[in-house]
Amino acid sequence: MTTIQINPGPSTPQAPQARGRFRAAQPNTVPFGTTIAHTWYLTGRKLHALVRQPWVLAFSVIQPVIWLFLFGQLFRRVIDIPGFAYHGTYLDYLVPGLIAMNAMSNNMWAGMTMIEEIDRGTLNRFLAAPASRIAIMNASVAEQAVSTTVQTLIIVALGLAGGARYHGGVAGVAVMVAASILVGVVFGALSNAVGMTLRSREAIIGVYTFFMLPLMFLSSAFIQTDLMPGWMQAIASRNPLNWVVQIGRSAVSAHPDWAAIGVRCGGLLVLAVACVAVSVATFRSYRKNV
Amino acid sequence: MSTTDCAIEARQLVKTYAVRGKKHGIRALDGLDISVPRGMIYGLLGPNGAGKSTTVKILTSLARPDSGEARVESVDVLARPGQVRHMIGVVAQRSGADPTATGRENLILQGRLYGLRGAAVRARADELLAHFGLTEAAERLVKTYSGGMQRRLDVAFGLIHRPAVLFLDEPTTGLDPESRAAMWQEIARLAGGEGMTVLLTTHYLEEADRLASRLAIVDRGRVVTSGSPDELKGELRGDAVQVELPADADPARVRQVLAALPAVRDVVIAGRDVSARSDDGAAAVPVVLAELQRAGVNAASVAVARPSLDDVYLRHTGRRYSESEGPDCAGHANELETAGVSK
What we know:
The complex is a heterodimer. Chain A is elongated and about 60 Å long. The model of chain A is unreliable at 1-27 (pLDDT under 50). Chain A is 71% helix and 0% strand. Chain A contains twelve helices and no strands. Chain B is an alpha/beta fold. Chain B is built from 13 helices and 14 strands. In chain B, the strands form three sheets. Chain B has a six-stranded mixed beta sheet with strand order 6-7-8-3-9-10, sandwiched between helices. In chain B, α3 (103-113) packs across α4 (118-131) and α6 crosses α13. The interface between A and B is large, with 45 and 46 residues.
């Protein structure tokens, strides 16, 4: 295959005989090294903004923290229902569920940032410059991963302060964080895709309300799936949010089921990569409507 | 003009946007053609919604046209957008600066996207910050910048990689007269001293007139006419010659004298003011003055007004520019006059 390596240095028009002789098979292909470099720089931009406004992160966990303490207190006797089959307090039970919920919930607003950048002209500035499209999405994913990690650790710490115990130790918590990052990437990428294609804040709010509560209640976040009606159990077993809850709960338990954790993490990873690919593909439709 | 002399070429661009409730959408471009020679400021003039920004978006690889061809420095924008992006600088209508980063950080990131690295990108960023008078504000967050400062930073974005072709989409919209005057000087310098090709879109008649060496008037997605501002106005063949008479002049006598002159026509006398049209106003003035003097009338003042771009617009679209633009246009034009920048 003949491709043209585009000189990334300060550009001058190429000599006429050099132009047009080759036909680039993939005109939009950016060299791999450039994608990596752009991911690094664009992620740096996002993290810089995050560091400048750390309180935004702290505010964003207020909601799950309210759930943690109010729900944890209100339903603490749930654990006594026959068939609940859980060794620990209800707060112990709840923490992995709220971590999954927080990861999904906060990342589903990623598309809002995308719309803001479209409205401000920042996205167009990057696109008119030879910025790698994949890097633009990677930067969004990386920023989400960092903020999800911080938020997850805040919830873990507050849970601990409230009396929750993590028998799986640091390794268990690390796995729980990893799963929350993965589910965050899934919903963050989908939110970006919705933001790019529909460019409407209402659409993002709509997607949020349509998915957030149902997926949350169709998981074992609040109650064991064994206690659910059969149809709900069937959905829950296919619900990626539920996988995250199960991964976290198993990882911080005294006897983690590593095989099941591995399978579910693999499933989340595949889903995350697919969703990021979808979000990168939306640049194509953006170009039609910009 | 042969194709190889062109920095920018667009052929029969058509672009339709889907709009809910409209079966065929909105046709933003309807067969637009332009050819921009190298090293000049080329103006796209037209009211809001004429299709200027859509043209820029297509030429800068942001948007895909439904049909048509676009080339920048002879490279096909549709087939090889990546190559085109390295050759062009883009200053879009909306700023695009990251408000949560400093001006310097913004510029350095921009340079890195074009492949500048290390000390080179920092040096280039500092050079541009100094050039645009932003050195003192370099470490401040962009959200604290004034409109004029932001716009200067935007132009710096477009220049960081020393592009061959610069696209400026409404660069002075929303600026105060002083910032606008400074921006004009900067734009004129880019094409003049640095030999860059600049495609400038504007909805200010005055701006197009002063900055552009050639311009295309865009209306409803098409170029209705193009040429240098003087050519376009010259085509109208009819300068206005205005003479102010002394208080004691006899209007009937003046009319008689002027009607006999082949150099002027359409003589109208209202009180002490005489106006007439002439194919060549500058040449008509001495003749008019001499004839009046022979008749014993010493003019108090005389003025020649060339046709304005507004007249050109009227001729080609059948509408006054200000009618297409909305009420604020005339006000802006006056503002520009008082800004007092010479070309």
